[in-house]
Amino acid sequence: MQTKTLAEFAAGLKFEDIPEDVRANARNCIQDAVGIAVFGAKLPWSKIVIDYARRNGAGGKCSILGVRGTKASAPMAALANGALVHAFEMDSLRTPGTGVHPGGIVPPALAVAEEQGASGKDLITAFVAAMEVTTRIGLATRHSSEEKGFHAPGLTGVFGATVAAGKLYGLDAVKMTYALGIGGSLCSGLLEFAKSGSGAMVKRLHLGRAAEGGVLAASLAKGGFEGPPTVIEGKFGFLNAFADHALPEKLTAELGETWETRTICFKRCACHGTAQTPIQGLQELRAEGGFTADDVAEIVIGTSKKVVANHDIKKPADAMAAQYSVPFSVALSFFRDPLDPQSFLDAKLSDPAILGLCRKIRLEVFDETAKPGKAWVCRLAVKLKDGRTLGRTLTDFSGSPTKPMSKAEFDGKFRASTRDLGPEASARLLDGLTRLESQPSVTALLALAAT
User: Fold this and answer.
1) Is pLDDT at 375 greater than 70 in this prediction?
2) What SS3 class is residue 396?
3) What is the per-residue pLDDT across 57-110, written as a single tens digit (0 to 9) for each?
4) What is the reported pLDDT for 371?
5) Residue 444, exposed/middle/buried by CB under 10 A (0-12, 13-18, 19+)?
6) Helix, coil or strand: residue 354
7) What is the distance between the alpha carbons of residues 299 and 357, in angstroms, rounded to a whole number?
8) Is the predicted pLDDT of residue 339 greater than 80, yes or no?
9) Are 3 and 217 in contact, with CB atoms under 8 Å apart?
10) What proportion of the chain, given as a percentage, has pLDDT over 70?
11) How does pLDDT run across 253-291, given as a tens digit for each residue?
């Protein structure tokens, strides 16, 4: 009965049970998610979702990040903020990858925390409970849901959102089990956006729908609505429906002892996680070798089979495909500051310089990355027109648990993401998020996150 065990853990978790470094990582993830949601609010696809949430969530008291004076119901605020967090390929990951986006837990948690008048400690506790549960579900599915064509964060994200919302609603273990049972019927998200050549806006919606679904599931369970108590491990449960060769033993292994919140990986650049390591490696090689794009004859990036199959897009059709493309993201980093999300927003898909360098970038399978959990490993070989070849192998990028960003780098990402708030409001919001544990209510803090 793994579903019940996960529900009991989540319902019973207390702030004092959580190790200090785990709390700090949770606080960092909340800070990161709030910042990138503020940035995401100005994007055209985000505005469509925000308008929908305004129309259908009127009368609520939950903030939509990055939007002044707008309040919505908890489900609609979660939907909008979930879409904002995932709006521009800036949100956090888990390493090694499990199809989980930790930042996607923040929108439903913020919505219900604001609705319920919860404290910063309550918010952190709910986040950790959700992260521990949803990551184990991701580990148990082993990415095989994506082999079937599902977008894993749209599936696992519902469970994370359900636990976060349920924790803040004060669900006991029985109702938390029902909430997970309900949430299991709300999982959705297909990967066709990566293959069709158009319609990629829908990817942004997957975490929004997961957030909304989690709030719905927890709200219904709070009212006494029931769901199957074996929704994850049952014969027709989540693992058997969405995954081949699942590992159900991963669901509860070392629960409460090994903290998955420690595995959160933060992006530096506004592009897919598979491009982060190549960009960093090439920045390092360029600093040492002093070469420009004009000096390059060819760049060979050794990476995993999955990256070669899904992220070798030489001429992306839209902004999402550009950020999903390793060649395009790497080529862009030669001409613009890849640490500034505005660089990816301003880049023209028809830019001849970027597309010209794209054609010189070749992805190939690097055997070492065929092992599970090696998606970030890459081997670089830069062949220059003067005959030199510069190489480097990287196992991870800055922002990962093994190579964390400095506080200055991490806060710098937040400031870049929230520059539209103005320097004073951005600084006050950052200060409040840094001291999240001491906040008696998150409501006043979120008021600063509006342009």
Assistant:
1) no
2) coil
3) 999 999 999 998 889 999 999 999 999 999 999 999 998 888 899 999 999 999
4) 52
5) exposed
6) helix
7) 9
8) yes
9) no
10) 97
11) 999 999 999 999 999 999 999 999 999 999 999 999 999
Residues 50 and 210: beta-carbon distance below 8 Å: no
**Has residue 48 got a pLDDT over 90?**
yes
Cβ atoms of residues 153 and 138 within 8 Å: no
Pairing mode, strands 389-394 and 378-384? antiparallel
Classify 158 as helix, strand or coil: helix
- Specify the pLDDT at position 368: 59
- pLDDT at position 369, please? 47
Measured distance CA(94)–CA(310) in Å, rounded: 19
403 beta partners: 400
Domains and CATH numbers, the chain: 2-265 (1.10.4100.10), 273-394 (3.30.1330.120)
CA gyration radius, the chain = 21
Q: What is the pLDDT of residues 138-196, one digit of tens each?
A: 999 977 788 888 999 999 999 999 999 999 999 999 999 999 999 999 999 998 987 77
Contact assessment for residue 338 and residue 364, using Cβ atoms and an 8 Å cutoff = no
Decide: 66 and 40 in contact? Cβ < 8 Å: yes
pLDDT of residue 451: 67
- Is residue 124 within 8 Å of residue 26, measured between CB atoms? yes
Cis bond before residue 401 (omega within 30° of 0): no
| Helices within 301-442 (DSSP H only) | 305-310, 319-324, 326-335, 341-346, 352-358, 407-417, 423-434
Instruction: Please state the rounded mean pLDDT for residues 232-250.
Output: 94
Contact between 41 and 64 under an 8 Å Cβ cutoff? The reply is: yes
Q: What are the tokens at 84? A: 């904002």
The answer for residues whose C-beta is within 8 angstroms of residue 334's C-beta and 6 or more apart is 282, 286, 292, 293, 357
The beta-carbon contacts of 286-294 under 8 Å, at least 24 apart in sequence, are: 286/334, 288/390, 289/382, 289/384, 289/388, 289/390, 291/382, 291/384, 291/390, 292/334, 293/331, 293/334, 293/335, 293/353, 293/356, 293/357
SS3 at position 86:
coil
H helical segments located in 223-337 = 238-242, 273-289, 305-310, 319-324, 326-335
On whether the CB atoms of residues 279 and 160 are closer than 8 A, the answer is no
Determine contact, residues 123/105, Cβ cutoff 8 Å. no
Task: State the Cα–Cα distance between residues 60 and 366, nearest whole angstrom.
Answer: 51
Q: CA 293, CA 385: separation in Å to the nearest integer?
A: 10
The answer to whether the CB of 24 falls within 8 A of the CB of 18 is no
Lookup: tokens for 242 = 């969405």
